[in-house]
Amino acid sequence: MQPDVLTYNRFYQRPLGAAAASIVGDMVMRHTPHVSGKRVVGLGYSLPYLERLMAEGALPVAFMPARQGVCHWPDSASPLSALVDVYDLPLADSSVDMVIAVHALEHANRPAAFLREIWRVLVPGGKVMIIVPNRRRMWAALEATPFGHGRPYSKGQLYTLMEDQMLSPLGWSTALMQPPCGIKLFAKSMRFVETPVRILGKNLGGALMVHADKQMYGTVVKSRRVPRTVPVVMGP
C-alpha cells in the first residue's frame, strides 16, 4: 500500500528523512546542473527535491496521485501543488522541460503507461529523473521508511522499462549507502559514510536513480517468436 502524503511529510521532517533528502538531493543536483528557468514537474512526493531545484531558479509544480493525497506547497506562496491522475496529466504535449518522479513509479499499477505519459509532456530532448527503491538493498526491505513500500527495481529492470517507452537512459547512480536507522546520531552520520561506502560499490545505495532524455525517433516492436509445433497432451 502506498503511504499517504502525511506519512511522507512526517518522514522527511524526522532526522532520518532530512538526512535522506539531503543525500538524494545532492545526487539530483549533480545530474541536473542547469535548471534556471526550466519548467519542472514533480510526480509522487517530490517536495524536498523540488525545493532545491526552485532555489536554483527552476519553475516547479508538484503533482501528487489521488491515492497519496495532496498538501499545500509551498507554504509562503500561491499553491504549486495539485492532485492529479498520473496516467492523464493536465498538461499539453511537449510542455515541460524536466520531470522528477520520486515515490511514484514503484506505486504505479501501469508503469509503462506512467512513463509514456511522462514522455508525452516532455519537450523534445527533455529530461526525466526517476528515483525508486533499489532492489535487494536494506532500504527496500524495511517498511519504516517510504523506500520500503511499492515495487523496488534493479538498474537493468528500470533501464529496460524506460527504453521501451522511448526514454533513453543517460546514466544511473544510487544514494543512501547506510542502512536506515531512526537514532538521531546515526542519521547525522549518514553524510560522512556516503562517499567512502560508494567507493566500495556504486550499486550499494538504497535509492536507485536513473536520468534519461526523451527520444523522438520511433522504436521497433520486438516480434514474438511463433513456435513451429504445438505441444499436445497425450491421453493414457
UniProtKB/TrEMBL annotation:
UniProt keyword terms in alphabetical order: Methyltransferase, Transferase
Molecular functions per Gene Ontology: S-adenosylmethionine-dependent methyltransferase activity
Listed GO biological process terms: methylation
Cross-referenced InterPro entries: Methyltransf_11, SAM-dependent_MTases_sf
Domain Methyltransferase type: 83-130
Any matching Pfam family: Methyltransf_11
Highest taxon in the source lineage: Bacteria
Name the UniProt record assigns to this protein: Methyltransferase type 11
Species for this entry: Kordiimonas sediminis
